[in-house]
Amino acid sequence: MKAEGKHLYDEEYDYEALLEFAEEEMADLRPAKKRSKGSTTSEVSIIEEVEKRPSRLAPVSLNKAKKPLPRRSEDGKLIFVDFPEFQPNLTPKEIIQAGSFGGCYFKQITSRVTGQTYSDAWREFPYDWFEGLAITEQVASTTYNKEINTYKVSCGSSVQQSEESDWVTEIDPYGWFQWYCRFYLGRRCSDDYR
After folding, report:
1. Are 31 and 157 in contact (CB under 8 A)?
2. Which residues of 63-77 are buried (b: 16+ CB within 10 A; e: fewer)?
3. How far apart are the first and last CA of the chain?
4. What is the pLDDT of residues 145-179, one digit of tens each?
């Protein structure tokens, strides 16, 4: 199957739709408000909340202001106006097209951080990132295939390894590359500084 069907951002990146989606996803993860004995506040402390989650990370908050796409410098680095020290040399599209994750980065997963199952996560991103790729073999395969990688080598880590390394948050359940795709498209959150 080629990259086809409904994508969240076919025409133009819709930051408001992503923000709304993330807020809905995070709503179930927030602890219920309670008053502890002798407490002057009505919310569960941050320490109690973090201890309840598989990840040791603090909760992530989204910034509402979308940032512009980066520009490419003369030496090929991507320059983000609000994060000039972060200078990757590949766009998410270039990484996907190079087969960097053996064709299985966007496979169906069940996150230990959120407790939810995710599939078709690739549909969130621009159609042209996946143009010419067989989705079931090169994007959302259940099996890693190093032959898909441009250099014919294995690279990347499993979702479980990412979760154990605290690289997964409730808003980016697939891990760092999902974060990078969203960051590239202009989403900013409190986790960006890590």
Report:
1. no
2. eeebbeebeeeeeee
3. 36
4. 999 999 998 877 888 888 888 778 899 999 999 99
